[in-house]
What does this fold into?
Amino acid sequence: MAAPADKTIKALSGKWVMNKELSDDFDTILQMQGVGWMMRKIISMATITLTISQYIEDGTNLTHIDIQQVASGGIQGTTERRTLDWEFREHKDGIFGEVEGKSRWILLENVDKGPDREWLTKGWLDESGGEHVQSYVVCEKGGWTAEQIWGFEEIDDARYHTRHVVVRKGDDWKQARLVYNFQSAA
It folds into this structure.
């Protein structure tokens, strides 16, 4: 189901299900991140549901986005706790292991210039004053980085929450768009 009008990048709280028909295949990204063949096949067959809680911390004006991922069959995935202040925080991920990540609000014109900038910044709806969420993750052990821009796009005349993802390892990089259907309020 497309996203209702009251769901914006500033109001993501709710349950979101990955739309595999509209999302790009991200197997090559997982492979670049060192995820084994069997786990990649399990991920490709699973339905991924994100339960998002977005809130502003009292007294700080900092936005927090907490995400609980669950795969079909009730398989618990990773819990992500993002604070949009562009400070690195350590995270132990069930698939990727030890990573460090940071997130922030960003205007698209402020996304770093590079060969993947066009991919990260194209196709977005102009909502929420032009702000989007930017996420950047480093996996020292795996030798890769991942950058994401989150927002909303119109696809086939419907509005969806999407994420443009770029994973870099050495001089190589892969990209994918992940598309999410709104399922329900959290």
